[in-house]
Amino acid sequence: MTHFNRILITGAAGRLGIELRKGLAHLATHVRISDRVELADVQPNEEAVVCELGDYEAVMVLTKDVDAIVHFGGAPLEVEFETILDSNIRGSYHIYEGARKNGAKRVIYASSVHAIGYHEMEAHIDADSPVRPDSLYGVSKNFVENLSRLYWDKFGIESLCLRIFSSFPEPADRRMLWSWLSFADCVQYVERALVAPRLGHTIGHGLSDNRLKVVDDSKAGHIGFHPKDSAEPFRDAMEAKTDAPDPNAASVKYIGGWFCELGHPDDEGK
Amino acid sequence: MTHFNRILITGAAGRLGIELRKGLAHLATHVRISDRVELADVQPNEEAVVCELGDYEAVMVLTKDVDAIVHFGGAPLEVEFETILDSNIRGSYHIYEGARKNGAKRVIYASSVHAIGYHEMEAHIDADSPVRPDSLYGVSKNFVENLSRLYWDKFGIESLCLRIFSSFPEPADRRMLWSWLSFADCVQYVERALVAPRLGHTIGHGLSDNRLKVVDDSKAGHIGFHPKDSAEPFRDAMEAKTDAPDPNAASVKYIGGWFCELGHPDDEGK
Amino acid sequence: MTHFNRILITGAAGRLGIELRKGLAHLATHVRISDRVELADVQPNEEAVVCELGDYEAVMVLTKDVDAIVHFGGAPLEVEFETILDSNIRGSYHIYEGARKNGAKRVIYASSVHAIGYHEMEAHIDADSPVRPDSLYGVSKNFVENLSRLYWDKFGIESLCLRIFSSFPEPADRRMLWSWLSFADCVQYVERALVAPRLGHTIGHGLSDNRLKVVDDSKAGHIGFHPKDSAEPFRDAMEAKTDAPDPNAASVKYIGGWFCELGHPDDEGK
Amino acid sequence: MTHFNRILITGAAGRLGIELRKGLAHLATHVRISDRVELADVQPNEEAVVCELGDYEAVMVLTKDVDAIVHFGGAPLEVEFETILDSNIRGSYHIYEGARKNGAKRVIYASSVHAIGYHEMEAHIDADSPVRPDSLYGVSKNFVENLSRLYWDKFGIESLCLRIFSSFPEPADRRMLWSWLSFADCVQYVERALVAPRLGHTIGHGLSDNRLKVVDDSKAGHIGFHPKDSAEPFRDAMEAKTDAPDPNAASVKYIGGWFCELGHPDDEGK
Amino acid sequence: MTHFNRILITGAAGRLGIELRKGLAHLATHVRISDRVELADVQPNEEAVVCELGDYEAVMVLTKDVDAIVHFGGAPLEVEFETILDSNIRGSYHIYEGARKNGAKRVIYASSVHAIGYHEMEAHIDADSPVRPDSLYGVSKNFVENLSRLYWDKFGIESLCLRIFSSFPEPADRRMLWSWLSFADCVQYVERALVAPRLGHTIGHGLSDNRLKVVDDSKAGHIGFHPKDSAEPFRDAMEAKTDAPDPNAASVKYIGGWFCELGHPDDEGK
Amino acid sequence: MTHFNRILITGAAGRLGIELRKGLAHLATHVRISDRVELADVQPNEEAVVCELGDYEAVMVLTKDVDAIVHFGGAPLEVEFETILDSNIRGSYHIYEGARKNGAKRVIYASSVHAIGYHEMEAHIDADSPVRPDSLYGVSKNFVENLSRLYWDKFGIESLCLRIFSSFPEPADRRMLWSWLSFADCVQYVERALVAPRLGHTIGHGLSDNRLKVVDDSKAGHIGFHPKDSAEPFRDAMEAKTDAPDPNAASVKYIGGWFCELGHPDDEGK
Questions:
Q1: Are D189 and C180 in contact (CB under 8 A)?
Q2: What tens digit of pLDDT does each residue of E15-72 get?
Q3: Is A137 part of the annotated catalytic residue set?
Q4: Given this model, what pLDDT does residue D2 score?
Q5: EC annotation (chains A, B, C, D, E, F) (predicted)?
Q6: Where are the domains of chain C?
Q7: Which of A105, A149, A202, A222 is the mutation pick for testing F, counting most F CBs within 10 A?
C-alpha cells in the first residue's frame, strides 16, 4: 500500500479525528495532528500542533512537509455565521493554500450530507446532482467543495470531498438506520482515498451498508470504498424505543434530517 | 418495526393475497381481508369482507378505520375492456377515494410489468422511463400509477406502485428465469414499503435476485427491499424441458413477454 | 399537401371543435363532425353526427370509412369521476377501437396540460418527463396517452397527444400570458400532425410563441409546428386589470394553474 | 407590469449599476441605490446610501422597506482572498440576511461566468451542470448561488443568479464576440426577473444574441428574457485588429477566458 | 475573419466540392484542390492535384504546407466493401496522417446522416447519441469520426465531422423537405468551422432551416452556423408530384431514408 | 443450457483463444477453431482451420455451418495501420459477411478497453457513452462495434461486443489491480452471451470483481455475467514491487492505460 512520509490530520481532537489517528497511523511514518484544543494521548509517531485554522501564518507552518492532508477541522454544526466564516471558510482556504504553497498533492475533506440536505429522500441523487445546502454549515461545505475544485482545475491538487452522513459510534436515532456511517467505514473511506491511484476531484457519499439505499455513490467507484458495517443490527432496539416518524416532517422528507427543521442560528433561543 | 392497528388487503383470495395474509399478519393487530369471492381459512386476527371493488358504497365501508391498504384486487389478466374498466379502473379509484375519505395514509398497489411491457429487454429502464403498456390490463396499471400520483401530490396519500414481474411458486417458463419474483420476496417488498420511514410516491420493480438483471430498481432504494431468492436453482430443469426461444419473438424481445403477442381481447377465440 | 378522403372530428361543437372544422376543411373531401349536442351551421362538406362517445355501437359506426380522427370530444373540465370515466376513458377507448376496427391509421388527441399539471414552473419538462396529473380530468388524459401508446406499439395506429395549455380567443388571466395557445396555432398543430410524414406516437405541447418558455416541445419537432401568435400584445391590458400573483400560490407554482388548487370534485360546493 | 414601491440596487456606482439605475427606474416609485463610493448624479426618485456590504448593521438598515433587491455589489475581479471574503461572501450574506429580516422577497444577484469558467467551450452546459469556478472570485459567486438556494429552500426568498458573461459597452476582445452581454440585454434580464410571475431559485446565463451559442439558458425560460443585441456587427473590426487565437490556450479552451490563465492572486506581480 | 495561407479541399470535383471551391476561396491565399478525376475550371488561386486518396505517398505530398483541410473526398454512396475500404477508410487515414506529419491543425470532414441513419425520426438525437450506421458507407463515416477523435485526443488535430443530410441544388424527394441542406448552407457550415475560435472535436448535423426539426445540433453551437435556406418553398410542388409516403416504410421511419431499405451491396442486382 | 451443433472460435491460438476452447467445449458438439498460425493440441471435438481473416474466400468457408461465432482473431496490439486494416477491419468484415451469408445468428466479438481508452478514470462511463479510442487498434475496435450494429439493425445478426480490459493469468501491473479480467471471468462472459435468451446488440465491459469500480456495465445486465474473481489478492505483492504511480500520468489518468502514452506506430523506434 502507498506509504507516506507525513500526513496531516486536522480536527484531530474531534470524534472522527480520534478514529482517523488510530486508523491511518499505518499509512505514514509521521502523522501531524492538529486541533484548536489540546490533543490528548499523543503517540510516538504523532506531531501534535494546536492551531486555529483561521490563522494564516499558523496554517502555513502546519502544512509544511506533508504529503497529504486529511482535513476534518472546523465547526461541526450549525452556528452563527461569523464562526462558520472563520473556521470553515477562511480556515479551509488556508488549508488549500498551505497545500499549494507547501506542495501537498492530495486532500481528503470532511464534507457533509448537509451540503445536499434539501434533496428529498426519494430523489436518489448522485455526485453530479445540484447541491441543496440545508444550513449555513452546509453552505460552508459547498464552499470547500467548490474551492477544492478550483485547486484541482488550476493548481493540480487532488481532493476527495467526502459527504459524511451520520458518523457516530452507533445509530443514535431512527434516521441513522439509513444514514449511519460507522467509524470503521469512515476510516476506510479516507484510507482508500489516500492510496487510490488517482483521485482527481471526487465527491463521495459516506454511508455504511445500511438496508435503505438513498444516494448513489457509484461515481466514487474508483476510490474502492466498500462499507463493512450496517445499521441493521441496531434496528429492533431503535424501533422499540422510538415512535414511527411522520413521513412529511422535514426531518424525514429531506436527507439532511433535522437540520432542515432548524431556523436561522440568529433566531435560535428566542 | 412499525405496528399498525389495522391494515386492509384486497384481492386476499388470490395467489398473492394468500401469501400476503400470512406474511404481513405480524405487522398489524387486525387484518381486514377482502375479495369478490368467499375467503377461506379466516384467521382470528382477520376480518373477512366479500366486496366488489366496483361498488362505491361497499368500498367506502371496506376502507373504514384502516391505517394502510395493500391493494392487490382486480382482474389479474388481459380481459375485455368493460371488466378492466370496472374492476381495475373504477375499483382502484374507489380504493383511493376510500383512503382519502377514511384517512388511510399509505397504499401498496400491485402494479405490473405489463405497465411497461413494450420496452425491449436490452433497454434497462428505471422508474422514470416512459411507460409502455402491452395490454389493456397494462393500461389499467398505468391508470392507477397515475391516479396514485395525483392522490400523493394533491391529497398526501403515499403509495408504492410495485410492478410485479412474475410471481409464482416457482419459475413456470424460460422467461421467468429472469422475471421471477418469489412469494417470499413479494411479501418482503410489501412489508418494507409498509414500514419504510417515507414512501412518497414510489415506483418499484418486483424481481427476485435472478441472474439476469433487466431493469434498474435503484430509485426504490429508500424502501429497503433486498431479494433473498433466485430463479437460478430452477434453470437446469427448465432448460432441459423447454427449447431455446427465438430472440426476436415478441415474447422474448419485450419485457412484457407473451402479453406482447396477445391480440386484442375482442379478437381472441376468433 | 396530403389530402384525405374523410376525417372525423369529435367534440366538434366545442370551442376548439368549431375552429378545427373551419381550419381543417381544406384537408379532406369529407369532414365528419360529431358531438353529444346538436351541431350548428353544418357545411356542405360536413357530415354531422350526434353521438355519445360512451356508446360503443354508435362509435363503431361513427368511425367507419375515415382516414384520420381528430379526437377533441369528452368532458373538458374537472367533474365527478363517473362522468370522466364514461366520456373520457370509455369514450376514448371506443374511438381507438373504432380506428382499429375500421382502419383509421392516425389520431390527433386533445390531451392537456393537466396531464402534467403538478410539475413546477421552473422544471422545464419535455415529452419524456414523468406525468404529474393535477385532477381526475388530468388522469383521464394520461389514460388516453397510455392507451394510444398501446395502440401504436401493438396495432400500428399513429397518434399525436397534443397537450393543450390554454386555448381561448385571447388570454383570459395572467397565467395565460405564458400558457396561451391561440386558436390559429392550435389548428396549425393539428393540421401539421395530420400531414406529417411520420407521427409514430408523439407527445406535443401546445403553446403559442409566448414570451415565457416553460416547457420544451423539441421532441415533437418532426411535426413541423411553428407558432405564429403570442400572448405578448395582451400583456399590458392584462397586467393593468389584475394584481401580481403570489409566486407560491399553487396556481402559479405549478404549470397546471388553478386545477392544482381544486379539491376533489366530490367536495366542491360543500 | 408589476410595480414596486421600493427596490434596492447595490453596486450602483459600478459599470452595470449605472445602467440598472436608468433601466429599472420605471419599475418602482423609489429606488434605493448603494455603493461603497459616493454615488453621482442622484435622481429625484433615488435614495443614495454609501455602505460597506461587510458592515452588518449598515446592511440591515440598507435593506429596510424594500420589496426586491438587485445585488450587483462586491469585488468585480480576482483579488486577494480577504477582500473577496469580506465584500463578496460576508457582504452577500448580509444582503440575504437583510432580505430575510426585513421581508424583501426577491433578489437578483450578479453571478458570473467565472462560477463555471473551467468548462470547455464545447461542453454546452446548462443550469444544472456542476460548477467549475476559475478563480477565488468565481468561488465567491458559487457561494452566493448556494447561499441563495438555502434562502429559497428554507426561508422562501426567490433569487435569480444571473451568470453575467462579458457586459461592456461593446465587445472588447475576440472572446466577447461570443461572450458579450450588452448593457441593454443585461438590464432586460434583470427587469424580466423582477416582474416574472415566479422565480423560485433560478440560474440564468446572461448573453446577448451572439452568433456562437456556447451555453444553454433554456432552464431560465420562465423569466422571459430574449436578447435584442448581438456582437456580430463588431466582428469585422475586431478581427481586423486582433490575431486569431490559439484554440488550445486556456483563455480560448475554457469559457472563463483569461481568468483561467490567471495564477493565484498571491503570486501576481512576483 | 481568419485568413489562411493555404487550405486543401479533397473531393473538389464532386457536387459539393465545386461549391466549396467557390464559397471558400475568400478564406485563403491558395486553395489546393484535389480529386481522383481531372479538375475543371481551375482558378488562378487554385492548385489542382489529381490524387487517389488510397495512395499514401501521394497524400503525404498533397497535404504539405496546408493550414487546414476540407476533406470531402471518397466514395459518396453505398458500394462494395473494398472500394469503401480503400477510398473512405484508408484514404481518410492518409488525410489525417498527412495532417499530422505536415502540421495541418484543423480538418473539416464530410460525414453523413448515414452514420446515424437507423435512428427513428422521432428519436431527436444529438451529437452524443450512439451511432446507428445504415450502410457500409455509413460505417466508414463512423470510422473517420472515431479516427478524428483519436487524432484530437492524442495528436491535437481539431475536426468538425459534419453529418451532411441531403445536400442537393434543391429538394429531390419528399424526405428532403426535412433533410435538405442547401449548397449555401453547406458552405456556410464549413466556413464557420474553419474560422471558429475553437473546434476541438465537434460533431455537426448539416441541415437547412427546414420546417421539420428532426435532430438537435445545439452541441455544435460554438461553430456559429445559422442556416439561411429552407426546403419549405419547394413543398407544394414536391407534394403535388409525389404520393404521401407510408409512415412505416424504413425510408420514412429512419432518418437514413432509402439507405435503410438497401440490401447488402453484394446482393444488389441479383 | 442452450446447446449448439457447431460454434466457431477465431484467434483460437491466442492467449484467450486457448482458454475459450477449454471453457466453451461443453456448449457445442463441434468446435471449429481457427487462427493464422498452426493450432496445437487439437481435441476430438475440435475442427482446426488455419486461415487468414483477410482472405474473403477462406472466411466464407470457415464460417459455413456454424451456429455462432466467437470472434477473438486479429492483431491484439497497436501496430502499423495496414496490418490493422487487413486483420482487424477487413478480417472482421469477412467474419460478419460469413455470418450473414452462412446463417450464423450470433457473434461474440473481442472488443477492447482501447475503444474507450481516452475516458478519464473518474468519468464512470457506460455502454451509451461516446467512444474515445486511444490507438489505431482502438479505432479498429470501434469499427467492428459499429459494423456489428449495422449487421443487427439491417441483417438481424446479434452481437456482444465485449470490451476486454486486461485479461491475463494474473494482474501484471498496478493498473490491472482495477482493470483485470481473469481468464475464468472472460470465459464466463462469453458463455453467458452465447446462451442468453436475447442479445440484440450489446456492449459489455469485461472486468473481474475488482475493488475499484471504474465503468458501469449495468446495460449488459441481460447477459447474466457475474464475475467470480478479483485482483485484490494480488494487491500486496504488486504494491510491494512497484512504485505508486503519478495520478496525472496519461497511463493513470485515462482508462486505456499505457496505450494513451504511445505515439503513432510510424514513430515508434525512431
A1: no
A2: 999 999 999 999 999 999 999 999 999 999 999 999 999 999 999 999 999 999 999 9
A3: yes
A4: 76
A5: 4.2.1.46
A6: 4-267
A7: A222
